[in-house]
Each structure stands twice: as C-alpha cells, then as structure tokens.
Amino acid sequence: MMAEVLLRPKDKIGIMLEAEVIRADNFAQKRAEEIEKLHVWQGPAKLLLGDFFDVDVRGSGPAEETTVLIEGDVTRVKRIGQGMKAGRIEIFGSAGMHLGAEMAGGSIVVHGDAGAWGGMEMKGGVLQILGDAGDHIGSAYRGSWRGMSGGQITIGGNARSQLGGGLVGGRIVVEGSVQNFCGIRQGGGAILVKGSARRGAGAEMTGGALAVLGTIEQFLPSFVEAGTEENPKLGDLQIEGRFAKFTGDYAVSKNPKGLLYLREA
Amino acid sequence: MANLIIRNGYVFDPLNDINGDVKDIFIRNGKVVSDLSGADRKDAKVIDATGKTVMPGGVDSHSHVAGAKVNAGRLMRPEDHYKSVRPKTALTHSGSGYSVPSVYKQGYDYAAMGYTTVFEAAMPPLEARHTHEEMRATPILDMGAYMVLGNNWFIMRYLRDGDVEKAAAYTAWMLRTHKGYGIKCVNPAGVENWGWAQNVHSLDEPNIHFEITAREMIRGLGEVNELLGLPNSLHLHANNLGHPGNWEITCDSLQILDGLEPRNKTDVQWAETKMNARRRQTVYLAHAQFSSFGGTSWRDFCSGAKSVADYVNKVDHVVIDNGAVPFGPGTAMTGDGPAIHDLYMLSGQKWSNTDVELECGSGVIPWLYLKSSPINSVQWAMGLELLLLIKDPWKTIMTTDHPNGGLFVQYPDVIAWLMSRKAREETMKGCHAWASARSSLAGIDREMSLSEIAIVTRANQARTIGMANRKGHLGAGADGDVAVYDLDPTRLDVNDYAKIKTAFSRAEYTVKDGEIIAHKGEILQVPDGRRFYSAPFVDETVEKEMLADVKEWFKYYTIGIANYPVPEKYLKNPVAIQANKPLEAIVRR
User: Fold this and answer.
1) What are the start and end residues of each CATH 3.20.20 domain in chain B?
2) Which of residues 245-264 of A touch B (CB under 8 A)?
3) pLDDT digits (tens, 9 = 90+) for B559-582
4) Considering the domain B4-55+478-523, what is its CATH architecture?
5) Which residues in chain B (70-99) have CB-CB distances under 8 A to chain A?
6) For chain B, where do the domains classified as CATH 2.30.40.10 start and end?
7) Per CATH, domain B58-464 is 3.20.20
8) Which residues pair with residue B293 across a beta bridge?
9) Quick check: A173 and A167 in contact, CB under 8 A?
10) Which of B294, B269, B167 is nearest to B218 (CA)?
11) Could you tell me the pTM of the whole model?
12) Interatomic CA distance for residues B56 and B388, integer angstroms
C-alpha cells in the first residue's frame, strides 16, 4: 500500500519553524488529524503543525512506502526530514535549514534551494537538492569533528562554504561550484565538485577524496603533488578525465591520506 | 520545617555499623534524630521504604563541576550540548550538556541519583570568584572547593626557604580569602615548569627559578595541612600523570607523607557515630587510575594498579579515589597543563591551556573512551582493580573524576561492575583483549556488598574530607540527607546487574535536610545548598609578616590586591569551618 501525505503552507511564516516532526516515517500510518496535531516550535512557542499547514492524507502504508509532498515554499521551515530513517519527502519549492540532517535512510528531493546544514551528520539515504544549497552541507555539527558518514547528497546548483566539513563517509556531488573550505577536515568519503572552488579546498583533510573539475582559486600550499591519474575512482565513484593528484593536508598530519584531484585543462 | 519518617527500609549506614537492618529513620528540623515525640510524629511526612535500600545522601568528594576550566569545557564543546538537553519545568531551569552539563542540570542530575553533597576538586585562587558564582547557581547541592596550591609562587618560595609556618599562614589566609575548603596539589613543581614548556618527571628534580622539588612541595603542603588542622588532608594529583610506568612515582609520592600525624582541628559539632568519623589519612590520592599506569611505553602499557593497591594495603595514611573509566565521551580538564598537552599530542583534538599567573595552570581536551582501544580498555579495568584490590574499603572512594575518566551519571555502571563479577565479565567480552591480558581484573572474584558500596559512595567520602561530622551517615545530629533506592537487598541477585544500575540511576527518593527533593528522578523541590569553606587561624605576627610578602609580590599579578578576595556575600548559605582556634594557633618554632 502506498501513502501520500500532502502539506500545503497556509500563510507566510514569520519566525522560522522547527519542524523535525515532518518525516515520512513519522507520518506513516497517521491520519491527517493526527499529523495536524504534531508539535512544532516557533521561537519559544510550542504550536501545532496544523497551524501552519493544510494536511491531506491519501492511502496508508508503511514508512518505506510513504511519500510526503510539500507543495509550496518552506524556506522558513527548519529540520524537515531530520533523522528520517525511511520513506520519501518531495518539496515543490525551497527548503529551510537542517533539511535531512542526521538522516539515516529514505530520500528527500527539493525542487528549489535548500538552506544551510542540509544533510548534517547524515548517516544514510539520499538527499537531492535541485537548486542551490547553503553552508555546511553534509558537515559536522559545530564543534564536532565527524560529519556525514553515509548516504548521498547531490546538488544541482551551487553550494556555499564548508561543504562536507568533517566528512567521514558517503558521497557529495555538486553540479555547480562551491565557495570556501570545501571538504575541510575531511577524513573519508568522496566529494565531487563539477564547477570550481574558492579558497581552502581540502583544508586539514586527512583522508577520503575530493575532486574539482573546474579551478581552485587559492590552492593550499600544504598539499603535495602525487602525479596524474586517468579516470580516477573517488571511493566507488568513477569520474572521467585526466587529473592532477595531490595528497594532504600536511599542515595537520605527517602522513595524511587525503586525496585531492584537480582536472587538467 | 516538616518532620520526616523513612519507614521500614533496609538501612546501610557503615559509620554507624548498620548493615541492612530494617530501621526507621527520623528527621526533625532537617537533622537526623533517634526518635520523634508523639506530637512530632503526627505532623511528620512518611516515606514507606519497605523492601527498599536506604543510605545516607550521596557525597562526591572529587568532581569538576564549577569554575573556569569547567566552563571552558562547556564553551569549547557545543557538540556536547545539542543532543543532551533538559527542558524547563515549572520548578526547574532548562539545561544542556552531556559530559559537561550546565550548572542547573548538574544539580538536578546529582540530586536525581541520590547525591546531596559535591566537592569541586580544583579551584585556582584567581578563579575562585568564578567557581563560587557557578556553585552559587548550582541548585540543591551542598558544595565546597579545594584550592590549587601545588605550584603557587608564595608557597614554593616559603617551602624552599624552609618556612613552613609562613606557608601555613599564607594557606590559611588564602582559604579564608577565597573561601576554599582544602588543599589540592596538582603535579607539584611541574606545572610551574610548564610555563617554560617543561615539566618535572621525578620527585627530586628542582624546578626552574624556585628550585623546589615535587617531594619538598608534597611534604611541605602535607605539613601545612596538618599544622592548620584542616578538615580534609592534602588532595594529591601526582606527578607524571597519564604516563606509562607512573605507578612508581605515585607510590613514592604517597610514601612522603607516611608518619605525619593526621590532625583535624576543626571546631564543629560531631553527630553521633559508632565508628570514629575522623579522617585517618594524611594524603588523599586523586584519580588513582591515571596514576597507576604500568609498562614503560604505550607499546608495553599495562595496569600498575596492583602495585599501587599493594602499597595502599600496607599503609594506613592513604585514601584513594579511583577515577574510573566507564567508556564513552568525557572531557579531560585538569590543573595539569602539560598532561593535557600530552593528550593533545596523542589525539590531535581541539584543546585549550591556561597559565594562571602566580598560581597554577590548567587545560581542557575532549576525550572519547572506547572499548576497542587497548589503552582505554586497560584503564577501565584499572579503575575497578584499584577498588577491588585494596582490601579495606575505608581506604577507597569511587569516582570517575567527572568528567575526566567518565561522567558522574555513569556511577551506576561503576557500582554494577563493583558488585557483580558477571557485569565485569560481560563488559570485558566487548573490550580489547588488553583489558584481560594486561590487568588482573579477570582473576578478581570480589563482589562488593551494598554496605561496601555505601562506604565508597558516601561514608568514606565524608570521612576522608572531614565532612562526617554531619554528612555520610545517619547518626543522631547528622544532616537529614537520605537516598532511598528501589533495591531489595534480601532479593538481590548481583547477576542481574541491570537492575542494580537502574536502581542507582534514579533514587526512589532523595531527601535533603529532611525535605523530599526528588522522587524517581523527578525534581520536587529546589532548595539552595550550603557552601563550606575552611577558616583556619594562625598567629597574628606570622600572618602580618606573610601579608607584607604577599603585598610585595602582588605587583606580578594582573589585578590589584583589593580585587583579589572573594567576599562572603558571593556565597549562598556560607558555612565557615573554623580550624586551629586562636589558643592552638601556630607560633614560631
């Protein structure tokens, strides 16, 4: 049995909502009235999801077969899909911060943009952002040193700074460009940036692989050349072309295992 | 204040030789009494403790819960906070933090476990204001703080010149000035050297400029402690902490104070106890686990706990707290700056270090203890070995050196391991092979009784630090602090260790000063605790000479002397413990 849960934003949202209740596996097997009564926070006020969204439920099914369709802009709604283990969320608009943070399974698709911290410390599942993404995508929480550890994030547009900070597993693919410190403190996993990167790509990297097809504006001096490679594999991600290969970051380790690939023109 | 009767529980009160007897406990006006009159009984609240374990309120004699380094641990670890939150209730504040909780959360979490008294084990004098501010904001608990003096310029100078009287006068003045409870000595002579990127690695190595050795500092501060007749003995964090093979310097350090006479000369009323409730020790070794490393390097690292335990078994002047390692995240924080740097070199983690001017140092680093780590596995075994191999429980105290070896909320795990061989075996199965290969834990049969647990979790804490005049037992006149645990000793099966853990994690009732503070972990009342400090007297002439020296050297401080003291108004419910009353005051020999 398939189930679809439709959420339609009612009005413009003022103070941002904290809505970690919006999860396919949390909505599964619930009636619309039950979903409307789930709690969300707006600043210090504890309110109901139904105060902000019209909820419609079609069919019923297990979490794996539940899809949440959000029809409209939810830029001011944070934590959608946080910690989700199964099911699917599709957002026909843009999403706010912390989208799919700590997600462990299932999938999330955003047709617009997504705010900062999307896929933070994600463990599994698929997060697909068709537009642009904010800072700290797939990274570690502030102060923590272990970021995304599994699953996949794809970004159709550009991403801002510190993409994949502390990445230890999984993969991130960006069709566009990234800003500063992409792959900072990366210890594992793979990042592919099809556009360009600004300064600090791979800073303090000790493991994993980071490939940039365009240019890196300010290349770190603490990476060492390690020859060239044709069609290298970033973990299990095969990429094509001839790449200059570097290891680093020697600024933080005597024997770093980080690999930085830059496509030769 | 209401009267309270705790009816029909199995009472464990080791200082009064009560070992699981079914007894009623009576509390009147916040104090334990032997009985209540008919009128008092009528309006008394009653707790039915039938089938439950009743102990004196928990006392923690070594925890890091207030002050600059604790707050540094909070500030540098946002990741320690965001998943550990406590919502606000009508009665209690919100709070956050797993390994270093906010002050409110600390107070509630301790109280929920049946603890009523907690001592901060390292207060740098310059950070005394901060420490008192945090203690002031900590709900429920009675508290006090040991002052860090093992690398203090004035003390080092006086002791080098052999002037123990002036060192004592200075210590007395400092305790009164900063409202400190006792003397903490951290890596004596070594932390001063750390200001020059060095350390000391033996007891007889003079340090830079002051030319004093660790041995002279330990002996001198031990003598000062007994000259002043302080409630606690010297609390020692030995040299070479965290280095393989340090068990040897630890035993040598303890040996220094053998033969010194313990003299608690506090002017307090002593509640009734069957046993002598005064301390016998002249040195209280902090977090012995970190000072009982065997081997010569990390490659041949092994437990040296047996060697330390053998030594402690032979002598009568030592009490240790173990500093257990129950696995999981911790935050190492200590006055031993170089030790934190050593940890940083091992982990590459974020860390911080501070030099506290003329007084001491400090450092903080996050740490994760893993069962898969060979070293951590041995450390886990060592923490338990120390308490199980030292035969007399009155020489041992259970701690995790919160939040260094583990967290105070993990005490129930440690209790379960001490009480149940099966619990130890089950955990050891998940540990690195070194846990059994490089310690003697696997061969230890001993399982602690509830009475012994009462000794190592409250009675001996109170006796060791000189609080047993009112804490750590249920004799007439003691504070009405009681913990009731949902554990029936007549049906106790130590193989069912999960039950032991659950019972000690959430006290059925926590009673403080005769009031029910918590029930099954829920906080019901939030009284303000007391702040204990020592106020020893010294001869006026010596004090005058000493103060002239202090003024002369105060130019090296970044603050003026007028801003140095912590006024008593900083403390909520201050309790000054007078020691060494004028008539007995030291005069120049």
Assistant:
1) 58-464
2) 252-253
3) 999 999 999 999 999 999 999 876
4) Roll (2.30)
5) 76-80, 82
6) 4-55+478-523
7) yes
8) B303
9) no
10) B167
11) 0.94
12) 22
